[in-house]
Recover the amino acids of this structure.
């Protein structure tokens, strides 16, 4: 039996960008549908039940962030935002509304497809067989045994470092905002304590990255948050 192609929905009012993204995805084996408004995007999402939504924020009949919120009321589909809005507050709005990733226009096809693959891996990992071991680089995290190893050697993490790594691993490939990480690791009363986050991210890099000054797995999304990349 032939394998079904994954389904992508592009919600973008610029025809040239829609065609560019469509061609890139179809070259990777995706079945692609298009919409150019918030209303049509929600209808298509409900009808097609896509595996991936790529959406602009500035749509003719509304804000793409509102579409993401409406989508999140019933769907956990991967959402990647493509937008000319480079301001950090716009990125945080989209990510907090439920977007999984944010790419600023102009962008290249290689970056787009790399982000799609990363989010696809995360999506499949979430549907896996419940394996309790997560790997990136030479690091192995055994969640069942609560043991972290690097190049085969056990690494000691503090409880907070371990919780932080666990949240990053559970969302590998996804941009996590400062506020999200603080709420998940420290609780709602610390949602503005970004200095805690910087300190502990630095400590994780010291322990887990080959070159903490040039990290390739625990990445900073400037002024927005952090991302754990399993395969750089």
């Amino acid at each position: 039996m032939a394998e079904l192609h994954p389904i992508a929905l592009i919600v973008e009012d610029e025809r040239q960008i829609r065609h560019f993204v469509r061609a890139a995805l179809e070259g990777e084996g995706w079945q692609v549908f298009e919409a150019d408004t918030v209303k049509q995007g929600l209808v298509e999402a409900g009808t097609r039940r896509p595996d991936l939504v790529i959406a602009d924020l500035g749509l003719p009949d509304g804000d793409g962030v509102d579409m993401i919120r409406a989508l999140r009321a019933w769907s956990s589909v991967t959402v990647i935002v493509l937008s000319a809005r480079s301001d950090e507050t716009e990125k945080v709005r989209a990510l907090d509304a439920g977007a999984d990733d944010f790419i600023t226009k102009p962008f290249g096809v290689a970056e787009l497809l790399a982000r799609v693959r990363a989010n696809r891996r995360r999506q499949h990992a979430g549907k896996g067989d419940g394996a309790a071991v997560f790997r990136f680089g030479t690091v192995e995290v055994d969640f069942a045994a609560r043991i972290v190893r690097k190049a085969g050697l056990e690494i000691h993490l503090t409880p907070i470092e371990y919780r932080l790594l666990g949240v990053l691993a559970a969302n590998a490939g996804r941009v996590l905002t400062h506020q999200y990480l603080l709420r998940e690791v420290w609780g709602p009363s610390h949602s503005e304590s970004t200095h805690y986050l910087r300190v502990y991210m630095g400590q994780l890099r010291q322990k887990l990255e080959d070159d903490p000054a040039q990290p390739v797995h625990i990445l900073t999304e400037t002024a927005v948050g952090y991302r754990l990349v399993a395969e750089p």
